[in-house]
Amino acid sequence: MRATVYHAPGDVRVENVPDPVIKNPTDAIVRITHACICGSDLWFYRGLDNWKPGWRTGHEWMGIVEEVGSEVRNLKKGDRVLAPFAFSDGTCEFCSKGLQTSCFEGGFWGGQNDGGQAEAVRAPFADGTLVAIPQEVEGDEKLLKAILPLTDVMSTGHHAAVSAGVQKGKTAAVVGDGAVGLCGVLAAKRLGAERIIILGRHEKRLAIARQFGATDVVTSRDEQAVQEVIEMTKGGAESVLECVGTESSMDTAIKITRPGGAVGFVGVPHGRGSINLSRMFMSNIALHGGVAPARAYIPELLKDTVAGKLDSSAVLDVTVDLNGVPSGYAAMDNREAIKVMVQP
Amino acid sequence: MRATVYHAPGDVRVENVPDPVIKNPTDAIVRITHACICGSDLWFYRGLDNWKPGWRTGHEWMGIVEEVGSEVRNLKKGDRVLAPFAFSDGTCEFCSKGLQTSCFEGGFWGGQNDGGQAEAVRAPFADGTLVAIPQEVEGDEKLLKAILPLTDVMSTGHHAAVSAGVQKGKTAAVVGDGAVGLCGVLAAKRLGAERIIILGRHEKRLAIARQFGATDVVTSRDEQAVQEVIEMTKGGAESVLECVGTESSMDTAIKITRPGGAVGFVGVPHGRGSINLSRMFMSNIALHGGVAPARAYIPELLKDTVAGKLDSSAVLDVTVDLNGVPSGYAAMDNREAIKVMVQP
Prior knowledge:
The structure is a homodimer. Chain A is α/β, with parallel strands linked by helices. Chain A has 2 domains: 2-152 and 293-342, Medium-chain alcohol dehydrogenases, catalytic domain (Quinone Oxidoreductase, Chain A, domain 1, Alpha-Beta Complex), CATH 3.90.180; 154-289, Rossmann fold, CATH 3.40.50. Chain A contains 12 helices and 18 strands. Chain A has helices at 41-45, 93-97, 126-129, 141-147, 153-163, 179-190, 203-212, 222-233, 247-255, 277-282, 294-306, 325-333; strands at 2-8, 11-16, 28-37, 61-68, 80-83, 86-87, 107-108, 120-123, 131-132, 171-175, 195-199, 216-218, 237-242, 257-265, 273-275, 286-289, 318-320, 340-342. In chain A, strands 3, 4, 5, 8, 9, 17 and 18 form a 7-stranded mixed beta sheet that branches. In chain A, strands 12-11-10-13-14-16 form a 6-stranded parallel beta sheet, sandwiched between helices. In chain A, strands 1-2 form a two-stranded antiparallel sheet. The longest helix of chain A has 13 residues, at 294-306. Chain A is globular and about 60 Å long. In chain A, 57% of the residues are buried. The model of chain A has no long low-confidence stretch (mean pLDDT 97).
């Protein structure tokens, strides 16, 4: 089969690789129908993660089961399945708690595991990991495109909103207008926030934010942005979604949180970070979040998506086929695309 | 009257100062019967805070009301009252939420306000701030000594436990064996933690920790301590109480927290801090806490204390009179005392 392989910074290639085969009785082989390129893929693409040549790419995907191992109980050949960006055994302490990203046996797609920017994958712990999609959606490409972001970006936006403690009738602020930030707006809206302020600077993205429910847009930077949010909210937002992952975005998030409120952080930090602990301390601002347990959220979000109540597909503004994956990376790297959908 | 006044690092003096008088109709004048020296007082005593000569000291106190302003409704001359370490108007958004430390009109005792290491204080917002103590305790010195720590250290230990999400039957770890850490052990016990691990190195303090409910003691440092707690708990404690406030203690706290768990931090940080955001992110470890809203906790903790169910007075291991305050500071600075009680 053909799959995307990392070679060097700025260099991913679609190549012939061995077909995936069942290795463990809990595996499934899935033919990919839809995948995405993630903002976090740009880290290795830009040489900022320690990736090795030969590693596979793509952690967001959906497809049709082709074969299951002898111990797979809940899935069969022909089922359409959605994969959260991490696989998990579904049985351990953390899987039982809904924190599947901490599964003792789990891992992430890509790297030394199969990746989703490919024709097919071997999926370990198929029962614990994959979520079957109702048969009724088959053939509805618009609905499939609305389901695809649940694999990561929409679940991550939801995790930011849940972690920030978004409440009905209160104010949420979202730092960052990337695909995750936009999904964070939609998640805050879905959880009932009355006022949703987005901090970003890209007109095309901010238009989607408005469409997703943002009531206010702040386009200034750093201290100026902080001042504006503090004034608009008379002291800060109860819930702040940090959807970037830099020191400066975290600083902004902590400064615009109302005393007693929370920052829900889902932007991937790299290593240690210097943060404003004094402000957190004096104002009892909590920091919650991390890598989203998408597997825990997908059933609930899928139900709303199938019912037509949740649709973040506007973040998928460019579509490529498998051969187009390298150009898709370049388009995201150049900020020409918000997020790329891949249809192998 | 006489009051303790800061002059320079290592130099606090008991001096004659003007008697306090009612300035605002919501004030009360309170004659101090009991006060404490706090571990956080050592910051200015050691020259680590930007204190100015002439500032008053002492934020933990209890006393008898001598006079009230015309708008004070809930207190009268002769009432015994306990003061949380921060005063607050009792009516604003944050006071209503139980986050009185963020009161728009509030402040802390000492500095440019009156301090508790004195014969008397002017207490602003007496109704919003002071808690009346039942008449029945009068004359019971043992009980009064058990009530006194609610002004700060016991409420702060409780805040650490609440912020760390201590749950019945689960494991809590407490970083630090100072007075706050010891109160954190007692708070975790009170909230039902089954296993309570304390990390500390002072035998006398650890003996109190055991008396307060610690089931395990870890006396090693840094990475060794982390390894021991991870092994004992097979992956970390659900709740970790950070009761020191240094970068190293916060590092330890984050490393010994179980995925999905929380660090409740009450150790006073100074400025920014470099923290292990990557571990927090990958394991969804939350950071909660800050300056304790003691005013919100005192009624509940006072009830248990008066009922004989809560007694942290063992942390008050040295008692001095007002003239003894400077030697009390020296004893805490030299670690000869855990915490000093002052009886003016």
